[in-house]
């Protein structure tokens, strides 16, 4: 681990209560592409289309697939994805953030000596969490989003007026 820092990849299926988490040393485009390939080929091989809701991090585009795999494989993977991005200031919209918060509180709330031990702890947490199957009953509605975004936009406009 780099100075005690690990990168966490997490996927959550909110309606089924299923999730998958892995910790690694890096968060590169290639690491992201390998995660996506494993998700589509190993965890969801029968799914015709997988909808991903995620933030706009530079590694989250499909171009990471094309940079990491042969064009035919990259295209095959990309065609099975429907990517929806959260608004720039909308990480609070991302259900994965809810799961990361639970992971942090329930599993990673202490110093863990090395990556191997962290991976073991995360695997045990994932198994327990999947056995419980807690679903995310996310009740944030369009009306609520408009109010929140209006508030954010108002603040941004005021800041730009000051600049």
What does this structure look like?
The chain has 163 residues and is an alpha+beta fold. Mean pLDDT is 81; it is low at 156-163. 50% of the residues lie in helices and 15% in strands. The protein has helices spanning 29-43, 63-68, 71-79, 95-106, 115-132, 142-162, and strands at residues 7-13, 18-24, 50-54, 81-85. The protein has one domain (7-138). The chain has 6 helices and 4 strands; from the N terminus they run E-E-H-E-H-H-E-H-H-H. The chain has a two-stranded antiparallel sheet with strand order 1-2. A two-stranded parallel ribbon has the order 3-4.
Total domains, how many?
Answer: 1
**Looking across the biggest beta sheet, what order are the strands in?**
1-2
The major pleated sheet works out as:
2 strands, antiparallel
Structural class: alpha+beta
The H/E string reads: EEHEHHEHHH
Mean pLDDT: 81
């Amino acid at each position: 681990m780099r100075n005690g820092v690990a990168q966490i990849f997490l996927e959550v299926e909110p309606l089924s209560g299923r999730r998958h988490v892995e910790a690694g040393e890096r968060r590169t485009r290639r690491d992201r592409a390998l995660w996506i390939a494993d998700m589509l080929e190993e965890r969801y091989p029968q799914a015709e289309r997988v909808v991903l809701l995620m933030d706009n991090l530079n590694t989250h585009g499909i171009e990471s697939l094309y940079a990491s795999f042969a064009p035919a494989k990259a295209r095959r993977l990309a065609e099975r994805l429907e990517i929806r991005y959260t608004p720039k200031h909308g990480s609070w919209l991302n259900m994965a953030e809810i799961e990361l918060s639970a992971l942090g509180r329930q599993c990673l709330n202490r110093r863990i000596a090395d990556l191997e031990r962290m991976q073991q702890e995360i695997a045990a947490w994932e198994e327990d969490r999947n056995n419980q199957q807690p679903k995310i009953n996310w009740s944030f509605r369009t009306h609520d989003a408009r109010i929140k975004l209006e508030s954010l936009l108002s603040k941004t406009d005021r800041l730009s007026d000051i600049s």
